[in-house]
Each structure stands twice: as structure tokens, then as C-alpha cells.
Amino acid sequence: MAPGPKHLTTGDALPPLQPGILRVYSMKFCPFADRARLMLHAKGIEHEVVNVNTWKKPEWFVEKNPKQLVPVLEKDGKIVYESIITAQYLEDIYPDKNPLIPKDPYQRARDAIILDHCGGKFLRSMVPKVDKIRRKSKTSGIAAASQRRLEEERDGFLFRYHTEQKFQQLILEDQISVGQLKSALVVSSVWDWFQIQIQIVTEYCAPEYRSKPGFLDYMLWPVFARLRASGSLGVGEGVPVSMETLHAWYNGMLNDPSVKSILHPDSAYQEFSKHYRTENTLFDEIETHN
Ligand SMILES: N[C@@H](CCC(=O)N[C@@H](CS)C(=O)NCC(=O)O)C(=O)O
């Protein structure tokens, strides 16, 4: 597979749009953009990819999305953004191409619940919060930063996820060992929370629940692919039995042609997450196959 197009940056011109061609503005390592790209691939929708340097964006990008976030879809003057909305939109405009969203209202409602738990809120604000925590932990030390977060948002759903994310980041940066992580998670009761999340996803991942990947798999995959790449799903003893189901789901997903079409090696995600939001963000330098 050829590496994708280079990421356009400040000063770069908008590639000319062509009538009838669907375009996705993307970023190679963005989990949200992955959602749109997975749907495009799984439904076999012809499209072109324009990669955007999300750290130093081209000036014209604000006209595509006032929030200046990828993914964005554009075709014949119609623009749609927000990853879950783009995915639903693709299903709506191409209902007959490999339908991926269940028709049964109950199934749709269950999917929406799982996505609400695991795909929407906590992924949506993950990046800025991790940044904030990292900045804090640099200035005041890991323990102080995590203590402050505990006090600020003790009962917050997002906080628990972000704490977990923060520790992953610190592990990646070699600032904390897995043993320290485990004790920190237990102390802050994040570990229990994390297990509950895993159980919820497991209900969905169980083979009897679904026979082939659909909308929800593609919405969840980018989150869990990154957790997996960071090694945090293999954290020591105490891993719930349900993890086995989760791992079986991973293995199934890894063989899915749409997942393969966007997947990078674990090392590429790790490398990217180390550098994201630094002046040296490596959008094009990290070796990938797509
Ligand atoms: N809620 C958005 C989040 C998209 C998002 O955060 N994309 C990141 C890249 S992973 C981005 O474009 N960041 C640019 C920025 O923060 O300025 C969605 O689901 O599409």
C-alpha cells in the first residue's frame, strides 16, 4: 500500500475540488478521522483523501470546519464534520452499499449506549485534557498533578478516563513504571472504572452479539486500537477475564480489510503520540503503509 498524501500545512493551497468527487479531510494518526475512513472503505465509497497538518493548519481549513478539526467530508459544496456524524451521514447517503447501522431500533439504542460510554465523550476530549495534564505534571510532578485532578473532578466520568490516559502517556515517556501505574489506578479507583468500561465493551464484542464488523465496531476500533498500541490493555495481573473476549474482538478486527486499510504499526502510534502537539509533530516522517 502506498503511503497517503502529505499533510497540507499553513501556506499550502487548497487542492482543486472536482464535481461529484467525495473528499475527506483527514490526518493519518487521528482516531476520529479513522472512523470516517473505516466507513468509507467498508462501504466501498469512492473518495479522495486530503491530509491536514492539525498542528499548523492551512488557512482555508477554517472554511471547511469552524472548529478546525478533522475529519471533514466535502462533496459538491456540502460539508459535514464530527466523526460520528460523518459516519452516520455516509450510511444515510449510501444506504444500499454494505449497510452498517442496524435497522432494529433496540439494537440501534444499545449501540448508541455503548458508543456514549466508550466512544463519544471520553475520546472526544481526550487529546486536550491529556495535554493539560501533561503540562501540569511537568511543572508540579506526577503525584501533585494527579492529586489535583482527583480533587477537581473526583466523580467525573471523563476525569477517570483521562487519568488513565495520562498514565499511559507517562509510561510511554518512561516517566512511570507499570507497577506505579497499577497502584495509582487502584488508589484513585480508576482501575474499577476501567474494568467496568471493558465489561460494557465486552458485552458488545462478544461473538454472539454481532457476526461481522458494523458501524459500532468502526466507531470503537480507533479508541481501542490506540489503547492496545500503548500496551495499556495488557496491564499486569488483575486483568478481568472479559479481556479475553476483548482480545478476540481485536484479533477479528485486525483481519478486517477496512481496518487493515488504515492501520499503522503500533510503533507508529507510539511515536506519534510522543510527539503530538510539539513543534516537531511528525505527520509525514513516521513510517506507515497508508
Ligand atoms: N469531536 C471531533 C474531534 C476531532 C478531533 O479532535 N480531531 C483532531 C485530530 S485527532 C484535530 O483535528 N485537532 C485539531 C485541533 O485540535 O486543533 C470528532 O469526533 O470529529
TrEMBL record:
Signal peptide: none
PROSITE patterns according to UniProt: GST_NTER
Keywords: Oxidoreductase, Transferase
Pfam families: GST_N_2
GO cellular component: cytoplasm
E.C. designation(s): 1.20.4.2, 1.8.5.1, 2.5.1.18
All residue ranges annotated as the GST N-terminal domain in the record: 20-98
Keyword check for Oxidoreductase: yes
Catalyzed chemical reaction(s): methylarsonate + 2 glutathione + H(+) = methylarsonous acid + glutathione disulfide + H2O; RX + glutathione = an S-substituted glutathione + a halide anion + H(+); L-dehydroascorbate + 2 glutathione = glutathione disulfide + L-ascorbate
GO MF annotation list: glutathione dehydrogenase (ascorbate) activity; glutathione transferase activity; methylarsonate reductase activity
GO biological process terms held by the UniProt record: glutathione metabolic process
InterPro entries in the cross-refs: Glutathione-S-Trfase_C_sf, Glutathione_S-Trfase, Glutathione_S-Trfase_N, GST_omega, GST_Omega/HSP26, Thioredoxin-like_sf
Protein family (similarity comment): Belongs to the GST superfamily. Omega family.
PANTHER family, per the entry: GLUTATHIONE S-TRANSFERASE OMEGA (PTHR43968:SF6), PTHR43968
Function of the protein: Exhibits glutathione-dependent thiol transferase activity. Has high dehydroascorbate reductase activity and may contribute to the recycling of ascorbic acid. Participates in the biotransformation of inorganic arsenic and reduces monomethylarsonic acid (MMA).
Protein name: Glutathione S-transferase omega
